[in-house]
Specification:
By secondary structure, this protein is mainly β. It is built from no helices and three strands. It has a domain of about 40 residues. Strands 1-2-3 form a three-stranded antiparallel sheet, with no helix packed on it.
């Protein structure tokens, strides 16, 4: 499934976009490939530089997601108690 997917891979400090291209399936054969560019992405000189270096956790805030106890999304493969993150 292709969906809306794009990512960036960093090599030697350069950012390269990675994006999928797919054609409609023929029978049970899928045709999907991942591509990038020859040249890295460039940022304009006046683009803001964002960083999370000085970010700190907010006390008392908790996730709204339950801790995962299954390896799969269907709830069929239970993660053993010894392997679960505490």
């Amino acid at each position: 499934m292709l969906a809306d997917y794009e990512t960036v891979a960093y090599t030697n400090g350069n950012a390269f976009p990675v994006f999928p291209v797919a054609k409609a399936p023929v029978g049970s054969v899928l045709n999907e490939a991942m591509y990038t560019t020859k040249n890295p992405l460039t940022a304009s000189a006046d683009a803001p530089r964002l960083s999370s270096t000085k970010d700190k956790p907010i006390p008392g805030v908790h996730s709204d997601f339950k801790r995962q106890v299954y390896y799969d999304d269907e709830g069929k493969r239970l993660i053993p108690e010894s392997r679960r993150k505490q």
